[in-house]
Write a structure and sequence with these properties.
The structure holds two protein chains of two kinds. By secondary structure, chain A is mostly helical. Chain A contains 15 helices and three strands. In chain A, β2 and β3 form a beta hairpin. Classes of the chains: A mainly alpha, B alpha+beta.
């Protein structure tokens, strides 16, 4: 009886693993565990070990992911509060949610916001929290460009780039158990993410940024926007480079815009040559000075 | 009343800025060797192939293409192969460069007048959790249904498009 339960748990874990794609470590472990469980059916101890290994590879649950993201978002807002313009914030949430609807994680509780900072930057936290600085928003000239910026950050959330970074740096308990046990307790989650919103200031690997750039273009295209609006933003950021200070952190944590344009150009090729879309520059909500 | 007037005045000023001359000669630099074609399509007739570093004058923009003028002729080149506004940056040119991007001007300057601080690595590290601000942010969330209605109003229609593989 007890064994049946264990088997069921193991099967559920395997299924859960198979369901979320693109995690190579997970795939490798899944395969290894699959082989092992066949060989050692009579060894419950081995099953336990492998089971916990499996859950470790799977990482935090969605609930935990959101709790982690919420903590990071709250910290970020502690450093830079929202721009006090309800119309602006609601507008950004509608654009962002529409773009996120085009993704495989449309059901996450997505939140978007514009924060008070002259820096040119945007941030994503696990679970669907996305923030754009006033400095970056002010450079934009159309809804499609805004959609592009949000879509790049949505891409980080979709592929769990920051969550993986936290896992790699062992800030998160690998099984996510500590967080699960104390859901709702800020201090436990805070312990898991390090100091303040520092993860937001940490560089992802270049590949993750290029991937988010490609996702940005695709999600915008799916949402009906002009496919080249996001590349346009890369151009804009490239110009802002001469302004030093306000792009310092962005440039420290991202590949150079020229490099990003190069990689994105190669990935886009001629696939978008005959695809039109809307820029909606008239509907774009402009910041009050 | 006075707010409405302020908005009108602001709009008029923006219009003036957008219409101001002096940003005719937009320049660009080829980031890599690429083709210049007679039409803004990958299968357009080849006009020339320009090497990396070539300086060109940008005439107009169409989707992912820029119409450029070079010593080897005029034609269309892929926007992502060109860094705009690099050659001979002069005072006051920045607004022009930004305006070409999407037919606007002046918006990039608004931030400079606000006097709000930046957001450094150190500030992020020492940031303290702000529950009230977070709740406020969460209160603005849009539902899927809300977002779909909003998209419909803007005549945005969802379409299928596969994710892009990483370039080799």
């Amino acid at each position: 009886m007890k064994r049946t339960v264990k088997c069921l748990v193991a099967a559920a874990l395997l299924l859960a693993c198979g369901a979320s794609r693109g995690q190579s470590l997970e795939d490798v472990l899944k395969k290894a565990v699959g082989d092992k469980t066949q060989q050692k059916k009579d060894s419950p101890a081995a099953e336990d070990v492998l089971g916990s290994l499996l859950s470790a590879a799977k990482g935090p649950s969605q609930e935990e992911e959101i709790a982690i993201g919420r903590q990071i978002a709250g910290n970020l807002l502690g450093a830079a509060p929202l721009v006090k313009d309800e119309q602006l914030q609601r507008y950004v949430n509608r654009v962002g949610r529409w773009v996120a609807c085009q993704s495989e994680r449309s059901g996450l509780p997505w939140h978007f916001g514009v924060i008070e900072s002259t820096d040119v930057n945007a941030f994503a936290a696990p679970g669907g929290y996305v923030f754009v600085t006033r400095g970056l928003y002010g450079l934009l000239g159309s809804e499609a460009e805004l959609a592009g910026v949000l879509a790049h950050e949505i891409g980080h959330v979709l592929r769990k780039h920051h969550l993986k970074l936290l896992q790699e740096s062992r800030l998160i308990d690998l099984g996510g158990k500590a967080i699960a046990r104390q859901a709702g307790d800020n201090s436990a989650v805070q312990k898991a993410i390090g100091s303040g919103a520092e993860v937001a200031a940490r560089a992802l690997d270049k590949g993750a940024e290029f991937e988010a750039d490609r996702i940005a273009v695709v999600l915008c295209t799916r949402a009906g926007y002009e496919p080249y609006a996001f590349p346009e933003v890369l151009q804009l950021i490239g110009h802002a480079a001469k302004d030093e200070g306000r792009v310092a952190l962005l440039f420290k944590t991202h590949p150079h815009p020229d490099d990003r344009m190069d990689k994105l150009g190669l990935a886009m090729g001629d696939r978008f040559d005959r695809i039109k879309g809307l820029s909606l520059d008239k509907r774009f909500y402009r910041l009050k000075p | 009343m006075s707010q409405a007037r302020m908005i009108k005045l602001g709009a008029a000023l923006l219009a003036l800025l957008a219409a101001s001359p002096g940003r005719a000669a937009e320049t660009g630099t080829f980031l890599k060797a690429d083709a210049v074609r007679a039409t803004p399509y990958g299968d357009g007739k080849l006009v020339a192939t320009l090497p990396a570093g070539t300086k060109v004058t940008i005439l107009k923009k169409s989707g992912g293409w820029l119409q450029v003028k070079s010593a080897k002729g005029t034609g269309w080149a892929r926007m992502l192969s060109i860094r705009r506004g690099e050659a001979a940056p002069k005072a006051g040119n920045a607004a022009g460069v930004l305006s070409l991007a999407s037919g606007r001007a002046g918006t990039g300057k608004v931030v400079a007048t606000t006097g709000i601080r930046g957001l450094s690595e150190e500030e992020l590290k020492t940031a303290k959790f702000d529950e009230n601000e977070l709740r406020l942010a969460e209160s603005y969330a849009a539902s899927e249904e809300d977002a779909r209605g909003f998209a419909g109003k803007g005549k945005l229609a969802a379409r299928k498009f596969d994710y892009l593989p990483a370039p080799k």
